[in-house]
Amino acid sequence: MKDQDRLIVALDVAGATQARQIVQAIGEAATTYKIGKQLFMAEGPQVVRDLVASGRKVFLDLKYHDIPNTVAAAVRSAAELGVSMLTVHASGGSKMLKAAVEAASQSPTKPMVLAVTVLTSLSDSDLQELGIAGNVLSQVLRLGALARAAGCGGLVASAQEARELRKALGDGFAIVTPGVRPAGAAAGDQVRVVTPKDAIAAGATYLVVGRPILEAPDPAKAAQHIGDEIAAACH
Fold it and tell me: What is the pLDDT of residue 234?
């Protein structure tokens, strides 16, 4: 894997025009872009098709969480769009996860199914409020093991849990880390944040970065700076 492939730029913007401007501005500094609920709901699947047609890779982050048949159908539809990665909620259970993995594996493009463990906006007290026993780390490890057993290609988790996931589950699967902020950047609404260097050192495979790039005066320069941090951490 090339170092620049490890950076996933989150296109958390209102529309396709703004998304295209960002992609053009970033140029070769990144190859993979995350399309989440905001942009997908505004523009629909065409924004995915356009990005794939331009030679970029798409991480479709819609976090499917439904009955197994419905999730399998959604995964097949996402695969037809040519996405490289997509997300499901690990808390949907093993039957749902296996259905997603099977649907992805039977498609021509075979996108990687990533299981979301615990959202990076949640803290220990938030889990208690939801009636979940234990802390964030124990829940991440529990759901991570469930997703791995179901055949998922990777997990979505804070890099603060990535080290423990690697220790418990080993290698051979991807860890995609949101909540990454370059040193000195604002955390925003993310509770569990780390720097690119620390994320790679902890065992993260891919780093998702949004606002530090999107809100930068020069998005290309910001992406390149983060790419340089990743490269330095990998070598």
Answer: 84
